[in-house]
Amino acid sequence: MMVKLALITNARLEFHMYRLFVAIFLLMVSGCASEEPRGTVTGKVLINGVPLSEGTIYFENQTKGVALTGQIKPDGSFKLASHQGAGLVVGSYQVAISPEAMLMSADEIPLVGKNPRKPNDVKKSPLPEKYYITSTSELSAEIKEGANPPIVFDLKK
What we know:
Elements: H1 2-33, E1 38-39, E2 42-47, E3 50-51, E4 55-61, E5 66-72, E6 77-79, E7 81-82, E8 85-86, E9 88-89, E10 91-98, H2 134-137, E11 139-143, E12 151-155
Parallel strand pairs: 2-12
Antiparallel strand pairs: 1-9, 2-3, 2-6, 4-5, 4-10, 7-8, 10-11
């Protein structure tokens, strides 16, 4: 009786797992079919005309529930891309900039990596704190479908 009950339980579990797999697959396929238009996002971050040499830029559209971060390179430039492709979904975005650099490899992850990157001393950053979050940065960008001109944020101290 126990063996028969175990077989029934395993069969039900497999059936439910199969249904879950099919549901996830259908959601993924339907999500890909109704993909929203995207626009390229590139640009430069300056502080009083001088490139910000390191940091992270954050674009957020709360209405659509879309957010994406990108690394600021030593020349102040940035380019946004995700697993869905280059750029962002078309729309209006609030922007924030942090002096902290993004982690770039598994070796840089604190406590796990072999060579974790030391955190920036945020107090020494030339970037004023108001730019750290979207609600106080007063930075925004309008992303249109296709190729957009580079966005330049020239921040003031």
